[in-house]
Amino acid sequence: MLILPLHRAPTGANFPWVTLALILANAFVFLGLQQRDEARQEQALDHYVQHGLARWEFPAYRDWLAQHPDDRRSGLFEQMTSDEGDPRWAAAVLQSDEAFVAALHDGTVIDAGAAGIDDWREARAGFDRLWDRSFTERWKLRQSEIAPTRIAGSMFLHSSIGHLLGNMLFLALLGLLVEGALGHGLFLVVYLLGGVGAALASLAWHWGQQGSLVGASGAIASLMGAYCVLWGTRKVRFFWWFFVVFDYVKAPALVLLPAWLGWEVLQLLFVHDSNVAFEAHAGGIVTGAALAFAVRRLGWERREFLDEDTIADTANADDALLAQAQAHIGKLEIPAARALLEPLATRRPDDLAVRVALYRCARYEPGMPRLDDAVRAVLALPLRTTPELREQKAVYDDYAKAGAGRRLPLAPAQQLVLVRRWPAIGAGASAAELLAALAARAPATPGLSAAMLQVARDLQARREDGDARALLASIVAAWPGSGDADKANVLLAEA
């Protein structure tokens, strides 16, 4: 069964740098440090054969297997020691039996008084030195042995290129989602502790047995558990594949926890001799889920990242409601449009499109009783982009026609903020007209003369000299002898 969460793309803001670093570290270890292990082990096995270690150890190993039955190893060993076999690989089978190798070093399987024992010891010591040059041998996690350095090191080892690529695919997909939810530092802590939890689960399951563990899958499994708990009941999109059936669906992330964990437990109980550490996967999932639960209790998760999908879904739903309301307005179904728009305005108070739509509702209502409030809501928005400014100006122009004889329902200070933006969208003449009217009606408005001077300069820069001169003359007439009037006279003289 394959389940892949695929509901967030990397961006500059959420790029998983620690995940990338972990992928590069795993790739470097496998491609740079483990690649020579095969040559190192072959060199050690050649030494084994050339120095006659088989003469001493093969008979001892047959006796050992008779006392410690292991059908798989016995079959391989006998096959490799036959006339058609390769004694080097027989030595490799022997060397993989860690209990026998330990007994060799303890001196309990070869008679310490045998003739030539010193030669054997010297040859075996040379073989051990060559064998231990293998990077994988030095760092793999051995079952029934608690070694902190091996627990940490084994997380970065892989047995094949396919093993590496499969793990790195899952790390990339889950790392993006979990690192974004935790932040870089906390993500690394959860990843490493999850790998430790997975390794301890594997040791507990296999305690008393022989074997070893390599791979990042336990740590990656902890990200699976953390992902489920961090997203919780939020609905996420994921791809699933079970034999020949597959689909792309949306469901609460938490439902993936029993699916992932149950699948690993089932395989652990019923799939044998697969060389896959299902117990480590299950332990990693449980560890990651527990760590994520602690993170949530402490409030350390990044809610803004976790809620992005929900916010986007809400925005999409609101956009659909806005489009529906605009369709109602087009059909002059004003009550139906207003019923959709008023809740939208509460959720999106600074949305220009919603306010413009409400203005259209007020514009087409009989008697236009709400027109002033609606235009005020549009014109008071502090906009920045040119398209928005032009749409706002269009509403102002429409109101000037529809509400002939009405005074603009904005305080003088708000009118100053509004007109300062108009020259940038080619509406300098309208700005000059509104400012001149304001100067005639409310010359004491704070900042009025400065605003007029700024707009006049903007008009001059745009070669709209006639409107600029009219505005400068209004400044001189309204505030004779003032500093702004002096500046206006200078600009008039230069024009």
From TrEMBL:
Localization annotation: Membrane
Pfam families noted in UniProt: Rhomboid
Keywords: Hydrolase, Membrane, Protease, Transmembrane, Transmembrane helix
GO cellular component: membrane
Stretches that traverse the bilayer: 15-33, 164-193, 213-231, 238-263, 275-295
Molecular-function GO term, any one: serine-type endopeptidase activity
An individual GO BP term: proteolysis
Membrane topology of the entry: Multi-pass membrane protein
Residue stretches making up the Peptidase S54 rhomboid domain: 150-296
InterPro entries: Peptidase_S54_rhomboid_dom, Rhomboid-like_sf, Rhomboid_protease_S54
UniProt similarity note: Belongs to the peptidase S54 family.
Cross-referenced PANTHER family: PRESENILIN-ASSOCIATED RHOMBOID-LIKE PROTEIN, MITOCHONDRIAL, RHOMBOID PROTEASE
Protein name: Membrane associated rhomboid family serine protease
Native organism: Dokdonella fugitiva
